Amino acid sequence: MATKGNSGDNRSRSSMSIVIVAGLCCFFYILGAWQRSGFGKGDSIAVEITRQTDCSILSNLNYETHRGGIDDSEGVGKEFKSCGDRYIDYTPCQDQMRAMTFPRENMNYRERHCPPEEGKLHCLIPAPKGYVTPFRWPQSRDYVPYANAPYKSLTVEKAVQNWIQYEGNVFRFPGGGTQFPHGADAYINELAAVIPMDNGMVRTALDTGCGVASWGAYLFKKNVIAMSFAPRDSHEAQVQFALERGVPAVIGVLGTIKLPYPSRAFDMAHCSRCLIPWGANDGMYMMEVDRVLRPGGYWVLSGPPINWRNNYVAWQRPKEELEEEQRKIEEVAKLLNWEKKYEKGEIAIWRKLTTSEYRRDQDPQLNMCESNNADDVWYQKMELCVTPYPETSDANEDAGGPWKPFPERLNALPFRISSDSVPDVSAETFQEDNKAWKKHVNAYKRTNKLMDTGRYRNIMDMNAGLGSFAAALDSPKLWVMNVMPTIAEKDTLGVIFERGLIGIYHDWCEAFSTYPRTYDLIHANGVFSLYKDKCNAEDILLEMDRILRPEGAVIFRDHMDVLVKVSKLVRGMRWNTKMVDHEDGPLVPEKVLFAVKRYWVAGEDKATTSE
């Protein structure tokens, strides 16, 4: 593939400020795609974009009312201004200046600290000058346009570890890491010799302290999806790079509050020299990993202090310190009844036992957590206690139900439903939900013809329910961040993970833990009805604009009166919209609003249109 080109002239957008007419729509969209690919004439990637382009979504988003559409053109309300260049990479709840006012103990200052109401911005976060459309997967795994995240510090700091290299107008990611400088494939294959990744039994993974998420990027080869997290710290833009590559990641840290995931969520957890003090605080961080790890799941620790006897000189750390660190880790692992399955070189692998192998609640050494709800985690302090296994009716029964391989588990009845753990959700409800969302998604694709093309890699469902939207979309071309609103009537995030999908808890009255411009498509089902009396719709829409890429798409599903208000607001945010009836006809009160964010960058007063 081409990695260099004369991109400067091609990024000019001034000629694109045009009122689109139907006959010219496709021409200008292809031209825009060519320009924003970031490469010169004859570039193979631009040619491929041109060949694959289907412009129907853009013609459908003309301001005119089209056949089958609904006239929601009440005009534009207030017009939102740009926040200015200094906010290009603004992360409201992980703002660097605000972080420094909080205690450093236990990484508290790197946790979420959102601005008060009077400190919120009411403007649009601009893209950097020269911003281009990211490459499509799998090319995006290895290449990121420099203009999209123009930060070179990691190319110097991590040069010998092959994290990232700067080549002309792109960053290249060779697939290396601190513990796998010669590539992630060989490292993952070593793990797979112990952990059943090749047969679909291990599907969901948690990568703590992920760097640029090369481990998660290469796990896709084995159809394993990793939720990666790292703090916003001196390793500039590491999570931003991960998302630009098309790899799931959030800004996060193991600090003082619980991780925003349900209990028994992940099949595997991983730390590759992640600098987390696992033996500190009497093993509290290991206890938190234990909470989110499924019975029978695996924990991988590579790097210090594993094999400290042979490495303490290279690590430039006292051997006594490393010996004590490993002793504490082994002690906590034994307390949790994790069985060590492998240790070689700097890699150690433990497996959490199932109920049939070990009755945790009968161990007198353990301080069991007293909370009746191990999934109540939003802003909850981490506890020095061990999460009980789910109750079983038989001594030979595995807690949390037997593991099913992926993709079988995607549509199999989840254990949380079959065991009546989710109120008012039955097997019939689950099947009906699956059927309904397949129908909805098929209707979406009839309007937005780009949904199956690979144009949208990073997708978010803001109110994910049982995860059936993501299940209906399932494809190696994309992944979905399933968000469970903390005010949702039913907490079904555990169900989503049991289906082999990933997600996170979040309150949409606050900013999401990500960088700007990190999602290609956002789905908002009933979000504005849910938050109607909780917070300002304008704030939610501004946050959606912050995390959506230029020319990214949004699908709103809600009552018509709600969507008319939303449409009026987003037109003042430089979005184009089109409302359509429910697929079952105009008598259904629920409607669908399609939107596309226009392209504009820092220093531009006007957004160019892609209608």
From TrEMBL:
Domain of life: Eukaryota
Topological relation to the membrane, as annotated: Single-pass type II membrane protein; Single-pass membrane protein
One annotated GO biological process: methylation
Alphabetical list of InterPro entries matching this protein: Put_SAM_MeTrfase, SAM-dependent_MTases_sf
Main location: membrane
E.C. no: 2.1.1.-
GO cellular component terms listed in the entry, alphabetical order: endosome; Golgi membrane; trans-Golgi network
GO MF assignments: methyltransferase activity
Keyword vocabulary terms for this entry: Glycoprotein, Golgi apparatus, Membrane, Methyltransferase, Signal-anchor, Transferase, Transmembrane, Transmembrane helix
Stretches that traverse the bilayer: 16-34
Gene3D superfamilies listed in its UniProt record: Vaccinia Virus protein VP39 (3.40.50.150)
Subcellular location: Endomembrane system; Golgi apparatus membrane; Membrane
UniProt family annotation: Belongs to the methyltransferase superfamily.
Protein name, as recorded: Methyltransferase
